[in-house]
Amino acid sequence: MRLSRTDWSARSDAQLLRAVAAGEPDALAALYDRHAGWLHMRLSRRCADPETVSEVLQDTFVAAWRSADARHKGEAGGWLWIIASRRLVDAQRRQLRTAQVQEAHASRESDAVRAVAPSAEERVLSGGLEYGDLGTALDRLSPELHEVLRATVVDGLSTREAAALLGIPEGTVKSRAVRARRELRDALSHLGGTVPRPMGGPA
User: Fold this and answer.
1) I need a labelling partner for 162 at 20 to 30 A (CA). Which of 10, 61, 169, 191 fits?
2) Same structural domain for residues 27 and 80?
3) Is 197 within a domain?
4) Are 162 and 173 in contact (CB under 8 A)?
5) Chain segment 123-170, per-residue pLDDT in tens
């Protein structure tokens, strides 16, 4: 005759465990009713996340269902707490690893954004290269200074790449870039425009 859940609640832990090992779900339910409350309380003292506590509690009784055949004697409380505490440690470790992976991913994305984001100077130069005061100021630069500024700022070439493109020494690229920025600032100051300061040198 199948026992009711109330009948199972009157059995000892050892009897319940033997019944759980035999595949009796009502025995597991009775074991849960008897021990889930204090297990939840102890887990909550170690973990402030209610969702994690609930998951660990559920995992604990799933594990008890699967391994009850290895535990047929004595009280179940200590055995259940060992399972629950280990499950909690495992859950917290997984959460820590996930947080570390997410943090590392976010850091890489941030680095990538910083690497490709144009500087204020580049945005001004590329955005208004042909128009307004900036275009007028650029037109006042000599051709050799204009081409260096375009290569290093607008096209984003390094000093070495600009030197190879223009067929001039790297030192000449650097000196012309400095002169170009200086003359561009002077021209804009007379025209009433601005270029972000400080104006950095070529890469």
Assistant:
1) 191
2) yes
3) no
4) yes
5) 445 444 444 555 666 667 788 887 887 777 766 678 887 787 677 898
- Say if CB 63 and CB 87 are below 8 A apart: yes
Residue 110 is encoded by which pair of tokens? Answer: 């941030």
Q: What CATH number does residue 137 fall under?
A: 1.10.10.10
Convert the pLDDT of each residue in 48-79 to its tens digit. 899 999 999 999 999 888 887 766 566 788 88
- Going by C-alpha positions, the residue among 64, 70, 74, 72 that lies closest to residue 31 is 64
C-alpha to C-alpha distance for 116 and 128, rounded to whole angstroms: 20
Contact criterion met (CB below 8 Å) for 163 and 171: no
CA distance 160 to 155: 13
Q: What is the C-alpha separation between 97 and 83, in angstroms, rounded? A: 21
CA distance 95 to 98: 5
Three-state DSSP state, 7 = helix
Q: Tell me: pLDDT of 192 over 80.
A: no
Q: Are 91 and 165 part of one and the same domain? A: no
Domain-ending residue, one of 82, 115, 148: 115
Tell whether 58 and 81 lie within a shared domain: yes
Counted domains in the chain = 2
pTM of the model: 0.47
pLDDT of residue 56: 93
Please give the Cα distance from 133 to 135 (Å, whole number).
5
